[in-house]
Amino acid sequence: SFRLLDDNRIYTYCKINDSDSLLFLIDTGASDVVLNSDKIAGINITFDQQVSNTGTTGSGTVSASVNNTVAFGRQVVHGIRIISIPYSNERWDGVL
Known about the structure:
Blueprint: E1 2-4, E2 10-16, E3 22-25, E4 33-36, E5 49-55, E6 58-72, E7 75-85, E8 94-95
Parallel strand pairs: 3-8, 4-7
Antiparallel strand pairs: 1-2, 2-3, 2-6, 4-8, 5-6, 6-7
């Protein structure tokens, strides 16, 4: 399900590689699934690549993980690349 929270942004809950439910910001302009690197403790994910990323936080090299499973609602999608970016002042766990 989707939720409009008090910051006027849309969120949903997702699971990454069988994790507990994580709060994800819905960003229709994002080209990758992003995990907030400040909040990834306990998630079964291995970041084993470095990729170039350009986004609202600027440009740079970030860590990436390939071949992950993302589950939200009744959808389960396999083979997803996830990048890791620190968002220290955000309450959400990632961007979808």
